[in-house]
Fold these 3 entries.
Entry 1:
Amino acid sequence: MSLVLKVAWRNVGRNPRRSAVLIGAVAFGVFAFVGSTAFMDGIGDALIATAVDLQGGHVQVAARGYDENPTLDARFAGADRILAAADALGGARAAAQVVSPGMANSTEQAAGIMINGVDPDREPGVTVIADRLVEGSWFSGPDAGDEVVVGAELARKLRVRLGDKIVLMASDVNSEVSASAYRIRGIYRSGSTPFDRSQVYVPLRESQRLLGFGDAVSTVAVRLDAPARAEVIAGVLASAAGTTGLEALTWKERNPMLEMTKQAYDWSAMLMAVILFAAVGFTLVNSFLMVIFERIHELGIMLAQGVKPGIIRRMLFLEAVWIALIGTGVGILASAALLARWMSRGLDLSAFAEGLGAFGVPTVVYPVIDPAHMGLGFVIILVMILLAVAWPAVRASRFEPVEALNHA
């Protein structure tokens, strides 16, 4: 085996130009696959992060059925018990929230919005709004009843600035219109244009007063340091809620379309690898057919001397493996050189901010190396290359020694 391996290695160098072309083709396929997959994985992770950062954390506790029909009637009291259970878990941060549709009115414009009542102290540990402020500051405290934080897109639509007043209107639990005036304390930009246009934040106590909730809340959002534990934590919190009609849902359960999109991308990554390396495989087929016809006389001598056809097939397979390994190594090095900078600084896509923001994709995307996708891609590389060389290798092993020796 070692002798065949050495011969295969020497055969790679017999025609440096052809070998360089084949190695370049494999390297380009690997480079294209690793680069595109890393960026698509980065976009996928960014979409998931947006859902978690802006829409209830990794786990959300609410009244049963609230996720399908988020009405004011689906409020519940006793959120302190859920918060205490989450705090005791370790690696989890929780915050109670009140959510209601409403209207925001300025002196010039009006817009439909969602009013989010949040705990000023706990909310920064669950969502990223407090960290995404581009003007002003977060709430001064739990009792800041006349303060509001709005998105940059909503501020533009209402034609208001930091320090201006707006009026929030909503139907309370008694189906009566409730309204109050608030001064804009902060303006945020989350990276999602629809979100920035529709979400308004007020202190939790003020939202409870405005809507007549008393001590009740709409949800308790929980953010985890280890997202993989989401299902386990959801079970623990559901047990802590007892038989009070509450349920704990993970982000996957609340965003089934996002989970389906992620699964669909897993398949698309495999399809992309097959298409890329199928193209490389056709290049190898043509090249190895040329190789064996150039070496017919040499192969005839080997067969006449008693070399078994299986050894000839093995030699050509190992030659293809050498080319695949070198090409893969070159492709990985080229990908690493390109991605290293972008993985630390991110790829700036601000030129497409408007289009990306509509889908919740940030303007800076960080490539992500997913071992499962990369491993699958490299397996497909090897399989496609071995399949590509199979037919030329079989042809070479079936030559008749006398005909091969007499070949001009």
Note: The mean pLDDT is 83.
Entry 2:
Amino acid sequence: MVAGFGRHVLVETESGQRLICHPRGKKSQVVVGDRIRWLPSQDEGTIEKIEERNNLFHRQDELRTKSFAANLDLVLILIAAEPEFSESQLTRALIAAEAERIKPVIALNKSDLAEPFGRAWAKLAPYRAMGYQVVPLAIKPKADIEVSNDAQTACLMELLQGKKTLVLGPSGAGKSSLTNLLVPQAKVLTAEISQALNSGKHTTTSTTLYWIDPARTSALIDSPGFQEFGLHHIEPMQLATFMPDFKAHAQNCRFYNCTHLHEPGCGVISEVKSTASASSISANRYRLYSELFAELSQPRY
């Protein structure tokens, strides 16, 4: 599946032909990136089965689950130097990727704004120390696309080569501009998809897959911007497992079921309080963990 709107989805065959398919039931469980079995029905098709997924990147709050895409190789988390990005949102997206065993890469946009970019780059130092790849970008709106950094674009293209990548980020980070840069025909394709699905709406309200190479081996999946990123599908006791800086020290805890909040002999707390050298767990990261643990420990009704 390459796009969807409501119960209508767009499926691409192995030959590259695209057609509308519908699920048999009232509710569609199919998401972009799914491999499906379908049967022709006049000039459209009917979804018969969703093949087993390698992964499913999603978020979940108290009320509902939002699935972005399936069978991913990479999640490109796009944030901007200005306005200042939310470290809480970034942490949540990284945890969601780790939980599904999908490699996350952080892309920091607006490298052309020297002072804000310098501050943002420094803010990301703990994430680079954890082993996350952080790439600088200067993505311009379409009118200024010719002044975008060619070297950065080439580096990014190399990173995306042969992979199915979900571009994720808050509204205003530059996702649409990135899509237009890497897929020049994106607006035309989007209009065609909207027309095919008879949605009458621009598909940035949903998730859409674009091929960025003629051989159809590298895919970019554009997703709607978000302001909240719930992690209610993750148990609080699992959090440290999906945070590399915590995981490295959690194995030193005295108790196997340590919450890393108050227990004696906790390897994480010991590292946070360490004065021998600079701690590999920043005070801010520990605060984010504590807040997330409390949030995910709330009773669910």
Note: Residues 137 and 153 are 8 Å apart (CA to CA).
Entry 3:
Amino acid sequence: MDTPLDAVSPSAYDDVRTAPRALATEAVHAGRDDLARQGLHAPPIDLSTTYPSYDSRAEAARIDAFAADGAELEGTPVYARLGNPTVARFETALARLEGTESAVAFASGMAALSAVLLARAATGLRHVVAVRPLYGCSDHLLTAGLLGTEVTWTDPAGIADALRPDTGLVMVESPANPTLAEVDLRAVAHACGSVPLLADNTFATPVLQRPAEQGARLVLHSATKYLGGHGDVMAGVVACDEEFAGKLRQVRFATGGVLHPLAGYLLLRGLSTLPVRVRAASATAAELAARLAADPRVARVHYPRIGGAMVAFEVHGDPHEVIGGVRLITPAVSLGSVDTLIQHPASISHRIVDADDRRGAGVSDRLLRMSVGLEDVEDLWADLDQALAGRPRAAEVKGLHEAMI
């Protein structure tokens, strides 16, 4: 006879919850472990901005504790800027997938990165060592010093020599946006010494790599991309140890870069299909990369060793004609959705990076970046093939209009 759920002791329940589980299982169940005991199947969405409290002395003690180390508040929530139960479910799930103690979610990936930089600068460690390429806005944030940081750009082999007494962070992205260049995260973490390594894992996701297992203290995601997976939510998240998570919660509370509960719900739902989506899209991307590599109209293809759903390629002809020629594929920024997107980094995502720096990082003016979705590979190839042939959509629309008149 099955044991009723309400007859299972809390300690026995906790043993089941914390037992090692496969990634696919964690993706479905992490952050939802308590639902059945509450008689629920789908996670609830808590939209409250504030919560009743009749014991102000106890609340004062809790606020003092948060101010001291940023620890998550136990018990009833206080105010949405301090934390939200729905968002907390997503944070718990993402931490489990990345293999870290904690995770802290923000309103966007850039808000998440900004919080990391502010947390380090608050301790007087304003210097950052970074490896190009990075996402264009990350590059701009570091280069412009908008948060009072100073950056030294180097290659992976030069990280140790670039460290200074005031270095608070080393940042890499692997596979990198948009060239898909990879770095040896374990070697980089070793070169960092005691300086925290921040690895942007947006492209790989925990399905393909878990940077914390290779020595990264901080794992950054633009959760807008694969974690959400459907192009309808904007968010960022940092997976890390609990000590650093406390600092990030304090920055989030002070600056207000909170994630909306509905976004937290959508992200938790997105995680449940993350392994299936990433593996299916990666298989299609690998096939398209192979076909592009064999196409005489393509000068070079970039595809990472670890795989993934991102493909970058340089064309012999005009890349703008390819963008203008797609019909099934959507010409748009962002990535990680169920549908395939293509964009020209030198014109959009990395336009804000100085042209010489951009080209020096391998982002050529003929480079196109494609985020492969879940469509059939033959349909995608047919669209790429005709777009590479150079007949822009504008010409097609003009011909249709002339035929109508």
Note: The longest strand covers residues 167-173.
